[in-house]
Amino acid sequence: MIRWCAYCQRFLGEVEPYQDMNITHGMCASCAKVGLEFSAEIEKRIYFLSRLQTQLRDLQFSHDIELGKRLVDEGLSQGVRAIDLLLGIVTPLLKKFDASTDGLAIKNIEKNLAAICEYIATKANLSWPQSLNEATPDILFAAPPSNQHLFYLKVLELWLRDEGLFALSLNESMTNEKMQTACEKYQPKVVGLIMSVNTEAEEINQLAQTARETLRAAPPVIFVSGTAVRNRLVSEKDLPGLSLIYDEPQLFLIIKANLALGFFYDLKRNANKPKRNHDDQ
User: Fold this and answer.
1) Taking every pair of C-alpha atoms in the chain, what is the biggest distance, in angstroms?
2) How far is CA 14 from CA 62, 106, 224, 249, 250, in A?
3) Non-local CB neighbours of 79 within 8 Å, separated by 6+ positions
4) Residue 132: enclosing H or E segment and its boundaries?
């Protein structure tokens, strides 16, 4: 389920059951310190978020982008942060349909959601980051050649940049040659590979091997996430030597903490520890 703070309207991450994309509520650490009490106003906020999610979900099939923009404006006017709209409303909708809908329908859904996300970014003065010649990125996101779901990479990139990390997603599906070029150019500390279906396993393994060989002087941490991992369609047997990440928000918090310290813990060990919510950090 998608967990939000009922008081400040901030996205807190996902909790079990993960297949359920409906909204549930709790309280973040900041609001808990203040000692806020439940009120009729808080109840209205809870109802508002659930209604907004339902309306945006229906919008995926109506193709009414103008209505989507009005819904976004309504959310922002209620004090919901743009990045939280992206992570806690829009992206979970894509995950839900990506796991159960045929390819053509998914592409249409992605097109609608991408248009909404671009509008959110514009309204909040966020920019869709480009592949700029900046300092070494903390995390480089990429998708295998057969994976066309690049929209999800951009959302992850915006999220991590909002969290203070230099994340960079490559705006094209990666061949081994392109991965080699990107690793030589950016020298990333972490490589995140996104996997939508289990048939991409061979491509993922090849991309990971290319990244290791190219960056052998300073080997990056490589992890795999996405719908195929999330729905347990693949295992470590299919992706030997790679960290499979089922709880993406937790992994990103681990990466952020370890980048600050200047080193990485064993990601597999940390990823398997009891899950903590965003507000516990």
Assistant:
1) 58
2) 27, 22, 18, 8, 10
3) 8, 9
4) none
Label each residue of 161-209 as H, E or C. HHCCCCEEECCCCCCHHHHHHHHHHHCCCEEEEECCCHHHHHHHHHHHH
Residue 252 to residue 117: CA distance in whole angstroms = 21
Phi, psi at 61, each rounded to 5°? -105, -20
| Of residues 138, 146, 133, the one with CA closest to residue 194 | 146
SS3 (DSSP) at 242 = coil
- Give CATH for domain 139-280: 3.40.50.280
CB 128 within 8 Å of CB 116: no
CA 149 – CA 196 distance, rounded (Å): 8
Q: What is the pTM of this model?
A: 0.68
The one-letter code for the residue type at 5 is C
The tens-digit pLDDT sequence of the chain (281 residues) is: 888 888 888 888 777 777 777 888 888 888 888 877 778 888 888 888 888 888 877 776 667 888 888 888 898 888 888 888 887 887 776 665 544 455 555 566 667 777 777 787 777 665 555 544 555 778 899 999 988 767 777 777 777 777 777 788 887 788 999 999 999 999 988 899 988 888 999 999 999 999 999 999 988 889 898 878 877 889 999 999 998 887 656 566 656 555 554 444 344 344 444 343 444 43
Distance CA 224, CA 248 (A): 10
Q: Which two tokens stand for residue 242?
A: 């790679």
DSSP annotation string for 52-64: HHHHHHHHHHH--
Domain chopping of the chain, boundaries: 2-123, 139-280
The H or E element spanning position 72 is helix 65-77
